[in-house]
Design a protein that fits this description.
The protein is an all-beta fold. About 0% of the residues lie in helices and about 45% in strands.
Length: about 500
């Protein structure tokens, strides 16, 4: 079910960008003149993605953002370089948001557009669901085959957006990348175009219809990595191999502290006290609120492992299952061990064959509920506590503890623990819509879906603990059936594939 390909595309020459910044931190911007004001302010920029192509069914699509250029209404430009470039998996952005940074020292005044410079490395891993062979790849990508393609391409799409940088303080702008204008298949030929004039749009933050509280611009969710705790708050550093950089957020009395999936750490947290749940050098997942002053504060944080020691952990989307003890996934995230890591050669979009071994304690199969009351809908038992591959399904996202690793083609590993995490996808909503439930059809074909699936959500005020985050709507009853929704959810099915609900949603975004 796999193949390995390379696709060479045209290369556009980037303009010279002379100043640098650090992803996730307030960098210095410069170049080209100002916006026409008498002072300087800050611009916070985030990014999402939507509108999937009809084909292929994409599992991972990484692009590298090397720079941003802001153009004022007078035509003056302000150049910002991301150094190192920030690598973004666009498939995560169907439901989630990436924080590109808060950029200081931007001349105040009115601006009219933002240009994003995209460069290498880029890779797309997809299921060929077209019914025929894709012939412009070497080797060809056969029908019903998952194929990773290394893309050599750059582009500089521009989005028109009207915003004003204040003389003091910050303004927020969101970028939206149209995936259907970036990827297409025509007559057996895969096309990826990063210079399409309709590739990028933009909007001011908070997004229209947002249910964020006053003073909040956006929500950055499920940022994973290794924890550092300092006077300024918590830093989570992603693995260098992912290229996602770091995220720094301040602690606060209202932050939600959740236990790890094994239920061994952070079971009785002290409100507002991060040290009651996390220690330096632990693996964790964090949701952070982007505030109107351009800084981040923690909304929710949880340890990912029931141990203080960071272990080799690979997260990925399952593409095939060979019961009782083997399955294959496409890598979507990595957390390597601090020393003697086995997974240094893995990258986002790679294949990994996983063989289940051992008898860990307390259970080999865990569920990361992120505090959601998923047990209340009675589906966790179809996954939690299992001891073989029976509950695994294509489309599920799992994190595995790698105990041995073999750098074959594809690489393989042994694992003693499997944790169900968050599948991200776009699908078509189907009525009836209640505040807490809705149906989906048109699920991506790598799920091997049949029929319509019920989604369970947990609506509540954004400040309420452990609720579904809605974007563009306040609850599921407001879903517009004419437009798709992006969902981040736990996917669990029973032995007869008739489980209802099949999805427990942590995020629902109305596109």
């Amino acid at each position: 079910m796999m193949n390995r390909n390379k696709l060479s595309l045209f290369t556009l020459v980037l303009g010279v960008l002379v100043l640098s910044s650090c992803s996730g931190l307030p960098p210095t911007a410069g170049g080209g003149g100002g916006g026409g004001g008498n002072g300087t302010g800050s611009v916070s920029i985030t990014m999402v993605a939507d509108t999937l192509p009809a084909h292929p069914s994409i599992l991972s699509f990484t692009v590298s953002i090397s720079a941003l250029v802001l153009t004022s209404t007078t035509g003056a430009t302000q150049q910002i370089t991301l150094s190192p470039p920030l690598v973004v998996d666009l498939m995560r952005l169907q439901s989630d948001t990436v924080f590109l940074g808060t950029f200081a020292n931007i001349p105040s005044g009115a601006y009219s557009s933002i240009t994003a410079f995209l460069g290498i490395p880029s890779q797309i891993t997809f299921l060929n669901d077209t019914g025929s062979t894709i012939t412009n790849l070497t080797p060809n990508c056969l029908n019903n085959t998952v194929c990773p393609v290394s893309v050599i391409a750059t582009g500089s799409p521009t989005a028109t957006v009207s915003f004003t940088v204040p003389t003091t303080g910050a303004v927020g702008v969101g970028l939206d990348l149209n995936l259907s204008n970036a990827v297409s298949i025509t007559a057996g030929t895969l096309n990826t175009v990063f210079s399409n004039a309709n590739l990028l749009t933009a909007f001011t933050l908070p997004r229209t219809g947002s249910n964020l509280a006053a003073g909040q611009l956006d929500l950055i969710e499920d940022f994973t990595g290794v924890v550092t705790i300092g006077n300024s708050g918590v830093t989570i550093a992603s693995a260098p191999a992912t290229g996602r950089g770091s995220l720094i957020a301040s602690t606060n009395a209202n932050m939600i502290l959740n236990a790890d999936p094994s239920g061994m750490i952070c079971t009785t947290p002290s409100p507002g006290l991060i040290s009651s749940c996390l220690q330096p050098n632990q693996a964790a997942s964090m949701d952070a609120i982007l505030k109107s002053d351009g800084t981040l504060t923690i909304q929710e944080i949880e340890p990912l492992l029931g141990t203080l020691q960071v272990q080799d952990t690979v997260e990925g989307t399952i593409i095939s299952v060979t019961p009782p003890t083997q399955f294959q996934l496409v890598v979507t995230d990595l957390i390597p061990a601090a020393t003697n890591s086995l997974i240094g050669s893995l990258r986002i979009g790679n294949f990994l064959t996983v063989n289940l071994t051992g008898n860990p304690t307390p259970n080999p199969f865990l569920v990361d509920t992120k505090g959601l009351p998923a047990q209340s809908v009675g589906i966790l038992g179809s996954f939690q506590g299992a001891t073989d591959a029976t509950p695994l399904r294509p489309g599920q996202t799992v994190a595995v503890h790698v105990t041995t690793f073999t750098a074959t083609t594809p690489p393989s590993s042994n694992s003693d623990t499997v944790t169900l995490r968050w599948s991200r996808f776009t699908a078509t909503p189907v009525a009836p819509f209640t505040p807490s439930t809705f149906n989906l059809t048109g699920i991506p074909s790598f799920f091997n879906p049949t029929g319509t699936f019920l989604v369970q959500a947990f609506p509540g005020a954004p400040t309420t603990q452990n609720v579904t985050n809605f974007d563009g709507i306040t609850d599921a009853s407001q879903i517009n059936a004419a437009n798709p929704v992006g969902v981040r959810a736990l996917f669990i099915e029973n032995s007869t594939n008739t489980g209802s609900p099949a999805f427990v949603a942590a995020k629902v975004r109305q596109h």
